[in-house]
Amino acid sequence: MASMRGFVETPDYLVDLMVNRLFHDRRPSASDTLLDPGCGTGAFILGVLRWCDREGVHPPEIHGVDLDPEKLAAAKTLINGHGAVHLIERDFLLASESRYEYVIGNPPYVSISHLSENEKRSYRSAYRTARGRFDLYFLFFEEAIRQLKPSGRMVFVTPEKYLYVESARELRKLLASLDVEEIELVSEDAFAGRVTYPAVTSLVKRPTSRQTRFSNRTGELRELRFLTNGNPLLHQMNGGGEEQKDAPRLDEVCLRISAGVATGADSIFVKSSASLDRSLRLDAYPTVSGRQLSNAGEELRTSDVLLTPYDQTGSLRPLEELGALGEYLSQEEVRARLLLRSCVKRKPWYAFHETPPMRDILQPKILCKDISPAPRFWLDTQGSIVPRHTVYYLVPKPGVDIHQLAEHLSSEESCEWLARNCQRAANGFVRLQSSVLKRMPISDELVRQAAELDLWRVRDPSSTPYEQSNSAVLIGVI
Questions:
Q1: Cα angle vertex 334, ends 344, 370, to 5°?
Q2: Is-contact 395 256, C-beta < 8 A?
């Protein structure tokens, strides 16, 4: 039922721009075939007919495919019985033997979270692009390319995120084997009432050695190259050129680079240490959120704690062994709130939404906020703080000097690299992600430290996390 969801009507001006791209330097003939997958109410079909009428050429044979009978009925009314148009009610993502000289469209945007388990399994078995947290438009790209004849041209408008999100790596690998002629980032609000950050992608189904013309929203022109390993293109999009292939990476000197703990109910698990009942202190770790880092100056003192039903190995403790914490979590109102979380379908009702890797978290580490005007880093040299889900944490490997690593991350060179490679959130803020941080270039000296030195700091496991922190952890900003 793919094409019944994620439908967004394409405005006429954008349709006309895309049709002009589709027929640039290759005018269609009556013997050609054209596909509009997920055609909806027929905006692109009408755009093709407008172009052909204006240019005085016979339209190609047009196939509009959609699974929604109501939208097809609306398209049929608007097209008014034109003989070149054939509307087909079926799921585009089911196999087809049809092949086309032209493909144009606006595929549905449907994230994996809105698909059933059966759909996920089916798509993963049928499509190479259905990997990780894929979006349905990745699959439309793949299927449309499959149905495109050799040397045929395709123009799609989709979210720009396929150019850099990790889940689209297989799609970028696929595009690296084709002639992606042009990518234009169009206005963020091109679709009325929605901010979609759209990109118009034009490609020809043939191998090529030339680069892709790229235009950003300020009109700057650049050239991009899709890499066969599927690496993100943000670095190139932001003017950084192609990344060095053999440069050492941050993940080579870190045990873990991850987002912090997601409880699914911070109002239950996060408390102020000042008002915390003494009986709960044995299970309370000092904690920090992204908002607290945003408001921090050169130093941060956190007085919040995270009530944690896990031991220091990351194993969920039996409820009957939690003592006062178990009694608190079992209170009627508290338990009812925890039962509302989606994670209880697959794990005990008092567990966190995601299992915390406590062995790694309770190490000296570097912290940074997930979204901020510019990247900033703090040190947790005691290794006692538990970051929450709006904070990223980096745990160096044994032997790596954590202060030297933090200085490297905060250097002008590293900040420039992050600016070129990170996604942008609202107001131009930088959005950090573990997949980007892992690829950050680091110095050969830090790599040597990871291989040769053994200066890992060992904490005393016999003391409680509350005693180690004394309810306030000092984190120095780098």
A1: 65
A2: yes
Q: Is pTM beyond 0.70 here?
A: no
Where do the H-state alpha helices sit in 130-241? 136-147, 169-175, 234-237
Number of domains in the chain: 2
Sequence-distant (6+) residues with CB within 8 A of 458 are none
Spatial contact of 423 and 234, defined as CB atoms under 8 Å apart: yes
pLDDT at residue 471 in the model: 37
Which amino acid is present at 387? Answer: P
Residue type, 204: V
How far apart, in Å, are the Cα atoms of 122 and each of 107, 157, 213, 323, 470? 19, 25, 35, 45, 52
Tokens of 318: 């039996």
pLDDT band at 417 (very low <50, low <70, confident <90, very high): confident
Domain that holds residue 453: 251-309+356-476
What is the greatest pairwise CA distance in the chain? 84
Whether 24 and 161 have beta carbons less than 8 Å apart is answered as no
Please tell me the distance from the alpha carbon of residue 341 to that of residue 326, in angstroms, as a whole number: 18
Let me know if 342 is exposed, middle or buried by CB neighbors in 10 A (0-12, 13-18, 19+).
Answer: exposed
pLDDT of amino acid 365: 95
Per residue in 15-60, pLDDT tens?
999 999 999 999 999 999 999 999 999 999 999 999 999 999 999 9
Percent of residues, the chain, with pLDDT higher than 90? 64
Residue 62's domain is classified under what CATH number? 3.40.50.150
The verdict on residue 96 lying in a domain is: yes
Sign of CA dihedral 10, 16, 18, 23: positive
Please give the DSSP secondary-structure letter assigned to residue 135.
Answer: B
Task: Supply 223's token pair.
Answer: 């050239």
Q: Where is pLDDT greater, at 193 or 345?
A: 345
Between 444-452 and 402-409, two packed helices, what is the crossing angle to 10 degrees?
A: 160
197: left (phi over 0), alpha (psi -120 to 50) or beta: left
Q: Which two tokens stand for residue 337?
A: 């709130």
